[in-house]
């Protein structure tokens, strides 16, 4: 990191010296104006790289404020100068963004921050996503350091958050903040039923839960007929059992696909979800009971060249 | 041999260890014990010759599988429950009560094989049963009609594990307590699956067959279970064709005991049956478990190598004629066929016959037979003509609670029994299916 | 909705201590305005020690006023930084002061609060006792878990119905084991006790060629509880497979297994000999722990 920093510093120094060198004879140009002057030369995008050669050097038509207007027209640079000091580094965009973040972090270090868990959840770009977005291979370590600063900046109290910081952090945020997505609120229908869907292995279960006295029908059959194993029966109504709601609701469910274990545990998920519609506060206990989390494991597919998913054919000498 | 090191903790004998006598075996004189050898040869001596595992003797396996255990000394004694009385089985206020079976009744029921190996009797100190609503409904009606010398012909139906055989057992218990002559065929499957010997009964057209050793066993069970009733009754008919000398005023118990030979089993049984049909005798209760098994063509073959229909066996014919209403019982009788759902072959004839019987009972239009199905068995329809069908239903939460409280008091169910737990188990048991309730509650690890 | 946020946590963030309940009641009775934001240390002077540096006199703040002035009559509200944490905590406490519940638990619930939250063993996938789970999975063959569970249920029911075991003094069970006659009614404890008692404490690891001359060096190694149980069950299963077949049907294996467990408790089982053998080997191999080759490797 320090190497990058010094590198950036060097670039900056060079820029400054160059500016001073060219404007040595004339009055001093402020670097910012120099920037503005050369902004028309796009340097970062490779497409426009060709353009720079054809574009003639545009003399700055901005007159320095408070300078002698009678001075002769100054040519700021003898050659085209890239807008970014990191132009000749391997990752100009990232370096620039990083420098911005560093500067902001230094500048606003004193602003009050709020605890991490109170910050509005932000969808940050991962290293890979960032690389893909800017087309540069940002180094993992540097990106991590940058993100650390960015997240610290993001902790600044929302009331005091400067616009500058918001803009500076923008390149590191995803376009869509999926944390703001809210699940669609499932309604309870006119008959007092709530609906939930659950999946496990290759089974799918749909459950309709209604207030009642604890009767469960699965595919039109009572629980004991639907599941021969007591273990499976227990799995199916596990959420209701643990939250002491087994005698408070009736369940009508459809299950299809897969085997008994899959069906029972898919049903557990479906019933738990439908139960949460009636009583949202049960979500936490149900999660602790293991009924809210979808188990994503599935049968691994068979691959060609393998006997099964992973098994290889026996090695034969000839 | 006492080892030089401790069994449990690898500690060497020391004074401290000697001072702690309780859980560690003490080494009174450690020097007198030879130190063990550390050589590997000591361990290499371990004889590796594996003896072949002996196979169990003939009949041992089945006896093990079918053994019936009616008590468990480890279970706690449940005090405060009354002994079962005949009145309790027909009293609507007694619904939901647990009652213990009197010892004499247990012996009788055991003799006629009313208990089944799948019924979890072995978990409790002594046999208890729940008086449920279905019991009272069924037995109350039955008792009343038998008192009027009517014949009750019923098929007990219901889902799997709902308590059909238990209701059969309660019926038999009621029969014994009401001084009826109780005959029970515990497993109809045994009669048709070619498991026991069979023989042609001479001079019968169409030809009939009997199960000599099975009937002999049945006869002996019948005699010893109904000893009290049978020994009071005196022979009325002539039995000259029977072996042995029957004196004029021999009791029916003597008649039942007259032979030990399988070949005479059927004639004796038949003679006893005829005696019981005489007016003035005690009412008969004839029960059969696994009714659907005898409603098909059996696996036995006749001398002409044709498969024999189950109704061509003398014993099943006796039952089927009684069930179908062909036999006249002057003293009243209860003919009860219990269906089984655990191991039954689906049979369209039985289904349709029961459907028709149900409709007739409810005075609804009788459903027609499927015109496109040609394999209906006419004899099945004849056998089930006019029977009543009694559907056993799930138990209520109240009944479930009293049952679970009994289990908890026995120490078998180790949980608090309250409304929540009862309701939970009731739901897990498919909304109160009795057998499932047992499975759900009585096993520590789930099945 | 019952959130994770504990009101007490919120209170703690205030860095004040609320007054004792007694005083709270007094305050209500006198209908004095309820000020939450007051340092609670004031009523806790009894436990404070006088400063040792001075000449034993009371601190100046208390010396003159203690008798004359009632400390509670003139509360001086203290200002806290108006950040959200304090605001929330104060709002909660004011809610309590107004006679309401600390937080409305009932929100989002139709049938009242749960009597207890699901615990560690209430997870869908961890519903059986640990030992039972492990043993069941060890009984499993060809991935047929439900068959293994059925066997397990039969084993436990067999333990329940068989007569109480007679523990042999030669083969003591775990210290602190429940009396033998109580075991059948708690079959899980029965099974656990048998397995834990007969489980070896160590295993012998042989390090190839370490003893010199191509000979293996045998080193005793302690095992974790789960490992020990596994070994014990494997031994019991070996003994079971050598038994004579008892009956036919589903319960045959379970019956044999249950009998072996009873034999273990009663000290009749051959598994005890295996355990003894391993322990003897372990005691003998203790010397190898200081073997130069091993020490060299450890460095």
UniProtKB/TrEMBL annotation, chain A:
One of its GO terms (cellular component) is mitochondrial small ribosomal subunit. GO terms for biological process: translation. SUPFAM superfamilies: Ribosomal protein S5 domain 2-like. The keyword Ribosomal protein applies. PANTHER family: RIBOSOMAL PROTEIN S9, SMALL RIBOSOMAL SUBUNIT PROTEIN US9M. This is Small ribosomal subunit protein uS9m. The keyword Zinc-finger does not apply. Gene3D superfamilies: 3.30.230.10. InterPro entries: Ribosomal_Su5_D2-typ_SF, Ribosomal_uS9, Ribosomal_uS9_bac/plastid, Ribosomal_uS9_CS, Ribsml_uS5_D2-typ_fold_subgr. Residues 298-318 are annotated as: Disordered. One of its GO terms (molecular function) is RNA binding. Residues 299-318 have a biased composition (Basic residues). It comes from Apiospora kogelbergensis. It holds the Pfam family Ribosomal_S9. Keywords: Ribonucleoprotein, Ribosomal protein. Belongs to the universal ribosomal protein uS9 family.
TrEMBL record, chain B:
Belongs to the mitochondrion-specific ribosomal protein mS29 family. It is found in: Mitochondrion. Keywords: Mitochondrion, Ribonucleoprotein, Ribosomal protein, Transit peptide. It comes from Apiospora kogelbergensis. Pfam families: DAP3. GO terms for cellular component: mitochondrial small ribosomal subunit. The keyword Ribonucleoprotein applies. This is Small ribosomal subunit protein mS29. It comes from the Eukaryota. The keyword Transcription does not apply. One of its GO terms (molecular function) is structural constituent of ribosome. InterPro entries: Ribosomal_mS29 (IPR019368).
UniProtKB/TrEMBL annotation, chain C:
One of its GO terms (cellular component) is mitochondrion. It holds the Pfam family Ribosomal_S7. The keyword rRNA-binding does not apply. Keywords: Mitochondrion, Ribonucleoprotein, Ribosomal protein. Transmembrane segments: none annotated. InterPro entries: Ribosomal_uS7, Ribosomal_uS7_dom, Ribosomal_uS7_dom_sf. It is found in: Mitochondrion. Residues 25-80 are annotated as: Disordered. GO terms for biological process: translation. The keyword Magnesium does not apply. Residues 130-286 form the Small ribosomal subunit protein uS7 domain. It comes from the Eukaryota. Belongs to the universal ribosomal protein uS7 family. Component of the mitochondrial ribosome (mitoribosome), a dedicated translation machinery responsible for the synthesis of mitochondrial genome-encoded proteins, including at least some of the essential transmembrane subunits of the mitochondrial respiratory chain. The mitoribosomes are attached to the mitochondrial inner membrane and translation products are cotranslationally integrated into the membrane. PANTHER family: RIBOSOMAL PROTEIN S7 (PTHR11205). This is Small ribosomal subunit protein uS7m.
């Amino acid at each position: 990191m320090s190497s990058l920093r010094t590198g950036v510093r060097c670039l900056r120094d060079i820029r400054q010296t160059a500016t001073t060198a060219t404007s040595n004879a004339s009055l001093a140009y402020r670097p910012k104006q120099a920037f503005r002057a050369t902004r028309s030369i796009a340097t970062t995008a490779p497409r426009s790289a060709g353009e720079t050669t054809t574009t003639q050097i545009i003399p700055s038509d901005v007159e320095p404020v408070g300078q002698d207007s009678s001075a002769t027209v100054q040519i700021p640079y003898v050659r085209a100068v890239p807008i970014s000091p990191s132009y000749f580094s391997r990752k100009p965009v990232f370096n620039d963004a990083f420098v911005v973040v560093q500067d902001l972090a230094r500048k606003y270090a004193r602003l009050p921050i709020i605890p991490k868990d109170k910050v509005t959840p932000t969808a940050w770009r991962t290293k890979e996503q960032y690389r893909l977005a800017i087309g540069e291979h940002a180094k993992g370590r540097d990106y991590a350091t940058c993100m650390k600063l960015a997240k610290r900046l993001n902790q600044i109290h929302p009331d005091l958050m400067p616009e500058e910081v918001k803009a500076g952090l923008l390149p590191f945020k995803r376009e869509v903040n999926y944390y703001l997505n809210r699940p669609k609120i499932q309604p309870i229908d006119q008959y007092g039923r709530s609906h939930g869907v659950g999946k496990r292995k290759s089974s799918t279960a749909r459950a309709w839960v209604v207030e009642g006295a604890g009767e469960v029908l699965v595919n039109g059959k009572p629980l004991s007929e639907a599941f021969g194993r007591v273990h499976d029966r227990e799995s199916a109504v596990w959420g209701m059992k643990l939250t002491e709601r087994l005698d408070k609701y009736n369940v009508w469910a459809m299950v299809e696909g897969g085997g008994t274990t899959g069906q029972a545990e898919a049903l557990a998920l479906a019933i738990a979800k439908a139960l949460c519609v009636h009583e949202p506060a049960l979500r936490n206990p149900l999660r602790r009971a293991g009924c809210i989390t979808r188990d994503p494991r599935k049968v691994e597919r068979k691959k060609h060249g393998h006997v099964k998913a992973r098994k290889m054919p026996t090695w034969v000498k000839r | 041999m006492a080892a030089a090191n401790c069994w449990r903790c690898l500690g060497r004998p020391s004074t401290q260890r000697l001072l702690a006598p309780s859980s560690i075996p003490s080494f009174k004189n450690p020097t007198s014990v030879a130190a063990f050898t550390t050589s590997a040869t000591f361990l290499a001596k371990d004889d590796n010759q594996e003896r072949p595992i002996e196979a169990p003797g003939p009949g041992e396996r089945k006896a093990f599988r079918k053994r019936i255990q009616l008590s468990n000394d480890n279970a706690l004694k449940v005090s405060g429950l009354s002994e079962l009385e005949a009145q309790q089985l027909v009293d609507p206020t007694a619904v939901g009560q647990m009652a213990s079976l009197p010892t004499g009744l247990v012996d009788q029921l055991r003799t006629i094989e009313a208990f089944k190996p799948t019924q979890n009797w072995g978990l409790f100190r002594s046999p208890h049963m729940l008086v449920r609503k279905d019991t009272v409904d069924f037995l109350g009606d039955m008792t009343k009609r038998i008192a009027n010398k009517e014949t009750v012909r019923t098929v007990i139906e219901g889902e799997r594990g709902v308590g059909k055989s238990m209701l059969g057992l309660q019926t038999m218990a009621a029969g014994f307590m009401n001084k009826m002559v109780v005959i029970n065929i515990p497993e109809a499957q045994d009669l048709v699956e070619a498991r026991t010997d069979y023989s042609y009964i001479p001079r019968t057209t169409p030809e009939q067959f009997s199960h000599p050793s099975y009937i002999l066993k049945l006869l002996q069970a019948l005699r010893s279970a109904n000893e009290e009733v049978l020994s009071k009754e005196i022979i009325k008919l002539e039995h000259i064709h029977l072996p042995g000398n029957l004196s004029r005023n021999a009791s029916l118990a003597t008649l039942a005991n007259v032979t030990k030979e399988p070949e005479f089993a059927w004639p004796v049984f038949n003679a006893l049956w005829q005696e019981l049909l005489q007016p003035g005798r005690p009412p008969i209760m004839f029960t059969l478990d696994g009714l659907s098994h005898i409603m098909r063509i059996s696996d036995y073959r006749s001398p002409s190598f044709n498969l024999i229909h189950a109704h061509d066996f003398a014993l099943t014919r006796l039952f089927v004629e009684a069930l179908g209403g062909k036999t006249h019982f002057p003293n009243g009788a209860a003919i009860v066929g219990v269906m089984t759902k655990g191991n039954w072959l689906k049979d369209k004839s039985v289904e349709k016959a029961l459907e028709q019987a149900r409709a007739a009972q409810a005075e609804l239009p009788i459903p027609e037979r499927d015109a496109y199905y040609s394999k209906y068995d006419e004899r099945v329809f004849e056998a089930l003509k006019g029977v009543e069908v009694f559907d056993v239903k799930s138990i209520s939460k109240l009944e479930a609670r009293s049952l679970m409280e009994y289990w908890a008091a026995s120490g078998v169910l180790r949980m608090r029994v309250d409304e929540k737990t009862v309701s939970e188990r009731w739901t897990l048991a498919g909304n109160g299916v009795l057998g499932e309730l047992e499975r759900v509650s009585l096993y520590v690890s789930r099945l | 909705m019952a959130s994770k946020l504990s009101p007490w946590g919120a209170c703690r963030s205030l860095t004040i201590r609320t007054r004792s309940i007694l005083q709270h009641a007094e305050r209500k009775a006198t209908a004095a305005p309820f000020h939450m934001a007051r340092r609670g240390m004031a009523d806790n002077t009894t436990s404070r020690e006088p400063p040792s540096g001075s000449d034993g006199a009371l601190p100046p703040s208390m010396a003159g006023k203690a008798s004359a002035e009632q400390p509670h009559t003139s509360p001086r509200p203290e200002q806290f930084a108006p950040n959200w944490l304090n605001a929330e905590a104060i709002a909660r406490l004011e809610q309590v002061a107004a006679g309401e519940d600390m937080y409305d638990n009932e929100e989002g619930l139709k049938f009242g609060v749960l009597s207890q939250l699901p615990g560690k063993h209430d997870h869908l996938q961890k519903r059986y006792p640990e030992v039972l789970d492990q043993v069941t999975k060890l009984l499993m063959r060809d991935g047929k878990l439900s068959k293994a569970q059925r066997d397990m249920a039969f084993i436990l029911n067999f333990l329940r119905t068989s007569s109480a075991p007679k523990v042999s003094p030669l083969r003591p069970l775990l210290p602190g084991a429940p009396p033998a006659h109580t075991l059948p009614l708690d079959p899980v404890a029965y099974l656990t006790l048998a397995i834990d008692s007969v489980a070896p404490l160590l295993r012998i690891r042989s390090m190839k060629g370490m003893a010199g001359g191509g000979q293996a060096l045998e080193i005793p190694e302690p095992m974790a509880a789960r490992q020990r149980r596994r070994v014990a069950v494997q031994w019991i299963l070996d003994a079971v497979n050598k038994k004579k077949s008892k009956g036919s049907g589903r319960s045959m294996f379970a019956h044999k297994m249950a009998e072996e467990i009873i034999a273990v408790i009663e000290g009749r089982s051959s598994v005890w000999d295996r355990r003894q053998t391993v322990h003897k080997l372990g005691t003998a191999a203790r010397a190898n722990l200081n073997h130069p080759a091993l020490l060299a490797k450890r460095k």
